[in-house]
Amino acid sequence: MSENTTPSCDTSDSTDATVFQDYVGRSEVLRTRIAEAPVALLAALLDRRFDEVSPDGALPALWHLLIVPAPVRQSEIGPDGHPKRGTFLPPITYPRRMFAGSKVRFIEPLYVGDEVVRTTTIRSITPKAGRSGNLIFVTLAHTIEGSGGLALTEEQNLVFRDTDDPRSATAEIPVARGKPTGFSAVETVHPDPVLLFRYSAATINTHRIHYDLEYVRSVEGYPDLVVHGPLQAIMLAGLATQQLRRPLSTFEFRINKPLFLGAPFYCVARSADGREQLQTLDRVHDVCTSAWAE
Fold first, then answer.
1. How far apart are CA 158 and CA 151, in angstroms?
2. Which residues pair with 101 in a beta bridge?
3. Residues 6+ apart with CB under 8 A from 68
4. Pairing label, strands 2-4, 27-33
5. To 5 degrees, how large is the angle CA 289–CA 247–CA 63?
6. Cβ(267)–Cβ(278) below 8 Å
7. Residue 97 burial by Cβ neighbours in a 10 Å radius (0-12, 13-18, 19+)
8. Are residues 128 and 33 in the same domain?
9. Domain boundary residue among 107, 140, 163?
10. What 8-state DSSP symbol labels residue 60?
């Protein structure tokens, strides 16, 4: 179940980030149990069994993303598939929302069946100017407590954009370059709509950019469905664990650009500055998601 520890939120229609500062410090608490079904689904999505991914039964790095939010009524869903703003998140009217990145610190393992408490606090709301228009960044601080106490902390960044992306759905798609070289590890991923649907189902992610092609092209202006940033991050965290050969203590990732269906993408790794540097590369080897692991 979910509980909101703050009074009801203002639903005024404004894009001025300064009016949202009253939302900073507000918290939301979710009490739930880590269910077996989404864990098994994610393992199968990665073409593995869960006992292969985690012989000791602990959730691998970033699999806490399977701790899904409380159910949202259909009448409370916005036009992009996300819950409407103005309840917990401020009523930002910029139409485009993206997951910008996250930094996670792992403290204690979590297991299937654990009763957990996730507390989410709005840490900051910051306006910025970008190349594609005005932006508002919302930073969320998460803590997850399990049976052994505090299990992990996460600082997560969301970005809201006030203009359409300048890319055109009719733009010419560049020719793929083939498998990249010069890395200590390269994994090739062949994404398709079924992969995106299964991840959306496992994490209850209803953002339409991942499954609604007509919406993606006519509203967002993208050429194809968008591969989830957190799914890319989960794949990179798995690659980092293989490379480092021990559990991760920290994992940080940033989404640089959207990654679209239509061609394979690549998860790559190399050691740099005493930690593992990881990236997803698209068909022309542009960096879509960057990550660092220790």
1. 23
2. 157, 254
3. 32, 38, 203, 204
4. antiparallel
5. 55
6. yes
7. buried
8. yes
9. 163
10. P
Tokens linked to 111? 């297991």
User: In this structure, what token pair is assigned to residue 246?
Assistant: 């021990």
Domain residues for 2? 1-163
| pLDDT at site 7 | 40
Q: State how far the Cα of 219 lies from the Cα of 169, in Å rounded to an integer.
A: 10
Q: How far apart are CA 159 and CA 97, in angstroms?
A: 6
The predicted-structure confidence for 76-87, as pLDDT tens digits, reads as follows: 888 888 888 888
What pTM was computed for the model?
0.89
218/222 Cα distance (integer angstroms): 8
Task: Look at the alpha carbons of 39, 41, 47, 49 in this order and tell me if their dihedral is positive or negative.
Answer: positive
* Angle ∠(50,281,294) on CA atoms, nearest 5: 55
DSSP state of 62: T
- Does residue 293 sit in the same domain as residue 208? yes
- Of 117, 147, 163, the position where a domain reaches its end is 163
Residue 284 has pLDDT above 90, yes or no: yes
Structure token digits, residue 52:
């292969």
Amino acid in position 50: F
How far apart are alpha carbons 33 and 123 in whole angstroms?
25
- Domain co-membership, 204 together with 121: no
Same-domain pairing of 89 and 177: no
Q: What angle do CA 136, 97, 91 make, to 5 degrees?
A: 65
Name the residue type at position 207: H
Looking at the structure, tell me whether residues 155 and 173 fall in a common domain: no
For 266, residues 6+ apart whose C-beta sits below 8 A from its C-beta are 179, 180, 186, 187, 188, 189, 280, 281, 285
Alpha-carbon gap, residue 88 to 121, rounded angstroms: 10
Residue 292 pLDDT: 96
> Is residue 237 within 8 Å of residue 81, measured between CB atoms?
no
